[in-house]
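writing this on my phone so excuse typos. first protein, seq and then structure
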Amino acid sequence: SERSYKVFINPSVSDVLCTATAEALAMGKFVVCADHPSNDFFREFPNCLTYKTPEDFVARVKEAMEGDPLPLTPEQQYSLSWEAATQRFMRYSDLDQLLKTKKKKKQNNNNNNNEKKPPPSPRSIPEMVDSGLAFAHYCLTGNEFLRLCTGAIPGTRDYGKQHSKDLHLLPPLVENPVYG
């Protein structure tokens, strides 16, 4: 018979945004994890119970075992999606700012061809490498063929109706809408 669990314990302080923790929260489980900067993202979820001391740990586990996890709001469900994670990655990598800046400069150049503008300040090599890697990650994770070439399991990029029911996620057409 299938056994249902409602608590996920992750004592690690070295995972830095652990995928297993995100999956447990997305499935509506309690997560007991260390009060540590690597777990800052998860604190916004009501089912995330953090501890500082061994005594706190025991209290959080007891709290989880005695209570019931709260259902996630649609916003919380979305923030645990790959799309939201990619958007956060783009925002924190400043790649979106780079793309917006280039677009504005192009528009300004088209509007004011006679004005002289100072040359753009040179970007450091590490910034250019980081931006390039961020863009490559964004492109690779969004293309099924490239995902398959890098070893991904076929059909795992987007989840189906049954998977959304099992994990209590938004329906696939809400998560990945088809336009047109």
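second protein below, same order as before
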Amino acid sequence: MALSKEIMGCSLIEQSFFNSSSKVLLSHRFNYKQSQFWVNPVLKKNSVQLRKIRRGPVAAISEDLVRAVPEKAVKFKVRGVVTLRKKHKEDLKETILKHLDALTDKIGRNVVLELVSTEIDPKTKAPKKSNQAVLKDWSEKSNLKTERVNYIAEFTVDSNFGIPGAITVSNRHQKEFFMESITIEGFACGPVHFPCNSWVQSTKDLPGKRIFFSNQPYLPSETPAGLRALREKELKDLRGDGKGVR
């Protein structure tokens, strides 16, 4: 009878140890995902004493910490083709001014153009602009007898410039000229056309820059942010202020 109890007692101890070991194994599997586990089981009077050990911080990459590094804007060149229409007949004064402009153009009194984007620069809160470009070969083409003369101007813009929506023109010559059109080539959107069909006076007669817009129409509510101030200024110049002689 005593022998059977001893055998049964050993079986109960083994069963208790097996069940406790199973719980330890299951606890280890369950708590592994929670960065903690149980180790060093110690038998003490048919019971299992467990020590709880926490794991240290686990190195991980958080999506909140991963930030894309913005690409640096690169500069590239675009070309503008400016078409001017010449007068059929010139008087003596106009001929003298034409030759004078051909000479002064070589020393820096040029026709200056600047592209204006439809987008706003987030830093300056102003429309994005290109560098100032001048019409090339003015003096070499001053004596051409053709009705229309094409001039080239090269602009430098950033890769995040956007689409040009306006262009400004400053005539630093003595004589006015008739600007027919401007076409800008080199943007991903394709050629951008600026129909001008206007006389551009000298800055000595009309200070300031002439503004010409592309042939892309906009409703007042849909006008891009980069062009709103220029649209208002151009409209004010066309209407006049009721003073002086137009």
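The CA atoms of residues 6 and 215 lie 104 Å apart. thats all i got for now
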